[in-house]
Amino acid sequence: MNINPITTLIGLLQKLAEHPWVYDRIQSLAGQTHTVKRISPRVSGILAKTVVEVGGGTGFWKRLWHANSRYICLDIEMPKLQGFRAKVPGGLAVLSDATRMCIASESADAVVCIAVLHHLTDAMFGQVLDEVQRILKSGGHLIVLDPVLSERWAGRLLWRLDRGSYPRRSGELREKLQSKFRVIHWEDYSVYHEYVFMIGVKR
After folding, report:
1. How far apart are CA 71 and CA 66, in angstroms?
2. Cα–Cα distance measured from residue 65 to residue 53, given in angstroms and rounded to the nearest whole number
């Protein structure tokens, strides 16, 4: 049996990325700080008492919200949630599948979904959007940031390392998202990956 060394290396790197400390370093190298500066001004105007972050990992994006906001970090990987709890003692960490969130209906003012959608099949994508609509209050906001397919060499390399198996193009993402939400901001930009950044309102 032939063993591809590149595939083996990528598998090892993906395994390492499950560790909270390594995960945070990778996000930083991928341009996280630049992204914070870009989206913070847009998000700061959203008043949200309760925020649910889908695929929240170690809770990096909690910093976008007011300290008094009730922030719920939802993820399917316990090590990352443990990393979140280590950084935020007493933080609300929820181990849950985003297609079946154990969150009360109409309980959230905002839902954050950063670097998650490219991990979802089309069927799962629709289920997650339905769940987001369910848990959002009327007029609640959905904040999405996700890498998209591009021809940039750095982006192609990052897609080799990324565990997301369902990358989409910007137009495809917009079509899916605006079928469920009223889009009030849409932005395409790049760091190493190409990204889309959207703010939508529950219809």
Report:
1. 9
2. 11
- Residue 8: which pLDDT band, with cuts at 50, 70 and 90? low
pTM above 0.85, yes or no: no
**Average pLDDT along the chain:** 83
Q: What is the CATH number of the domain that holds 137?
A: 3.40.50.150
Rounded CA-CA distance 158/31 in Å is 12
For residue 64, the enclosing domain spans 5-202
Q: How many domains does the chain have?
A: 1
pLDDT attached to residue 5: 56
What b-and-e string marks burial along 44-74, b requiring 16 or more CB atoms within 10 Å of the CB?
A: eebebebbbbbbbbbbbbbebbeeebebbbb
